[in-house]
């Protein structure tokens, strides 16, 4: 059905193009060479502001270091102690993907509306634009997404290579959701990861992954969230209010003026989709004629539209959004509890390196996985809630989804075992401490309540104990009467 719709659209477009080209051929000839060059430039000019909310490619906002070393294995900041990494847990959003089929068809519909009233010589590159997104790739990973995941796997392996090098693959867990894009992401990550930690002859091509929607798609299983937030239009009031606000209406009017068309042709929702397609195409094809319709200030305003959407859908807008992620929080910390129990149960003469325990677990999920997890942990929480009427007050907001929830966004805890600097290998182990350090998108991030970028594990464990030890998902997600849901 979708292919038939796209095919019909192509036929209509070709017919319209042929007719208008014939009628206007003489007028086209009279266009000056300067005008042709100018129009071409604005159609393909690169946008200087590459922030497209959750549709932002990872390396646009988190440029990797050119040189990556084993920099995370030692916790060097803790004075008087020698600390080495014993475990890491990471939650990773899938890589850059193609737009969903609904958006693919919708941008073709918008384009058809425009070319029906647009003269082909006014904006030739936009007029002759062809939708190059495949109709059969419903949100599947793009090549860019595979590349950024593979490089992320390489970097994490390199940064903790002393911990991971030559370890048995049974000491690692790779957990995915039921969606194909998380499987594709995990496979690409795995390829980069094992090529660093294993010798060439030991590399195994196939990833041994677990599927767990309970951990990674809890948002689909939590009835209270589904009915009180996701499917409740009133829960997204701030988003819709800003989408119809003077800020976005002005952008819509400017787009109409640039195209020279009636100001009632496009809606503000159409303008937001133009913004998203500008981002998708720039990421995949390096440029997009749709970007010529928006300036930098427009892009910042439309970015705030996306931030409002995710603030109330995946962030701090409603308590249930944060609470529903407790299975993920619990899994992370209970695994670390098990790692510590395994280490502490070994004989005093047994080397830690020889002990088999989970060295690393890697979860591959969605923006709807990572956003509620940030919320549960208290990360990126602005003192002033994001609202439709306070855009000007949020120029320096923490909840900036382009940076915290781009494609391949990641959160990683590294657990360290620490001994006194005076400890000798011949001494009996009686004073061991464990510390935790948090990284968000590969950068150190302060755990709320910790004075430094590292914190005693027990302190952090106690802080999140209600999420870890009292995660009654069934009770938390029990649906209440509609009037009480928000």
UniProtKB/TrEMBL annotation:
Its EC number is 3.1.3.62, 3.1.3.80. Keywords: Cell membrane, Disulfide bond, Glycoprotein, Hydrolase, Membrane, Signal. InterPro entries: His_Pase_clade-2, His_PPase_superfam, Histidine_acid_Pase_euk. It comes from the Eukaryota. GO terms for cellular component: plasma membrane. It catalyses: 1D-myo-inositol 1,2,5,6-tetrakisphosphate + H2O = 1D-myo-inositol 1,2,6-trisphosphate + phosphate; 1D-myo-inositol hexakisphosphate + H2O = 1D-myo-inositol 1,2,4,5,6-pentakisphosphate + phosphate; 1D-myo-inositol 1,2,4,5,6-pentakisphosphate + H2O = 1D-myo-inositol 1,2,5,6-tetrakisphosphate + phosphate; (2R)-2,3-bisphosphoglycerate + H2O = (2R)-2-phosphoglycerate + phosphate. Disulfide bonds join 83-418, 278-291. It is found in: Cell membrane. One of its GO terms (molecular function) is acid phosphatase activity. Pfam families: His_Phos_2. The keyword Signal applies. Belongs to the histidine acid phosphatase family. MINPP1 subfamily. This is Multiple inositol polyphosphate phosphatase 1. It comes from Biomphalaria pfeifferi.
């Amino acid at each position: 059905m979708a292919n038939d719709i796209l095919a019909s659209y192509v036929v209509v477009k070709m017919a319209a193009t042929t007719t208008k080209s014939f009628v206007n051929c003489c007028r086209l000839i009279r266009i000056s060479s300067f005008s042709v060059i100018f129009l071409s430039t604005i159609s393909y000019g690169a946008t200087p502001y590459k922030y497209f909310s959750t549709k932002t490619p990872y390396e646009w906002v988190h440029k990797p270091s050119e040189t990556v070393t084993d920099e995370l294995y030692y916790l060097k900041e803790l004075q008087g102690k020698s600390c080495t990494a014993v475990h890491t847990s990471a939650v990773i959003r899938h890589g850059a993907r193609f737009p969903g089929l609904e958006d693919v068809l919708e941008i073709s519909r918008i384009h058809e509306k425009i070319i029906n009233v647009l003269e082909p010589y006014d904006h030739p590159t936009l007029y002759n634009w062809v939708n190059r997104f495949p109709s059969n790739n419903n949100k599947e990973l793009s090549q860019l997404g595979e590349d950024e995941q593979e490089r992320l796997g390489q970097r994490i392996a390199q940064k903790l290579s002393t911990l991971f090098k030559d370890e048995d693959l049974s000491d690692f867990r790779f957990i995915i959701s039921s969606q194909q894009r998380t499987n594709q992401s995990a496979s690409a990550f795995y390829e980069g990861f094992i090529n660093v930690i294993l010798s060439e002859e030991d590399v195994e091509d196939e990833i041994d992954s677990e599927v767990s929607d309970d951990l990674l798609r809890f948002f689909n299983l939590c009835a209270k969230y589904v009915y009180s937030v996701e499917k409740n239009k009133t829960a997204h009031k701030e988003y819709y209010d800003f989408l119809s606000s003077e800020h976005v209406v002005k952008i819509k009017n400017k787009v109409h003026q640039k195209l020279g068309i009636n100001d009632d042709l496009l809606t503000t929702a159409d303008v937001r989709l133009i913004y998203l397609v500008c981002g998708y195409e720039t990421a995949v094809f390096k440029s997009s004629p749709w970007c010529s319709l928006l300036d930098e200030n427009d892009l910042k305003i439309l970015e705030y539209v996306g931030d409002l959407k995710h603030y109330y859908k995946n962030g701090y807008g409603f308590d249930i959004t944060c609470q529903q992620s407790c299975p993920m929080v619990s899994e992370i910390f209970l695994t670390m509890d098990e790692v510590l129990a395994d280490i502490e149960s070994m004989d005093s003469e047994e080397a830690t390196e020889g002990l088999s325990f989970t060295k690393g677990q890697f979860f591959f999920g969605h923006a709807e996985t990572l956003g509620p997890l940030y919320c549960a942990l208290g990360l990126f929480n602005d003192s002033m809630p994001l609202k439709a009427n306070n855009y000007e007050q949020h120029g320096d907001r923490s909840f900036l989804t382009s940076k915290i929830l781009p494609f391949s966004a990641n959160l990683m805890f590294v657990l360290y075992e620490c001994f006194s600097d005076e400890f000798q290998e011949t001494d009996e182990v009686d004073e061991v401490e464990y510390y935790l350090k948090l990284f968000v998108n590969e950068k150190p991030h302060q755990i709320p309540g910790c004075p430094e970028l590292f914190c005693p594990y027990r302190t952090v464990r106690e802080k999140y104990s209600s999420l870890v030890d009292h995660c009654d998902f069934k009770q938390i997600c029990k649906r209440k009467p509609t009037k009480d849901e928000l």
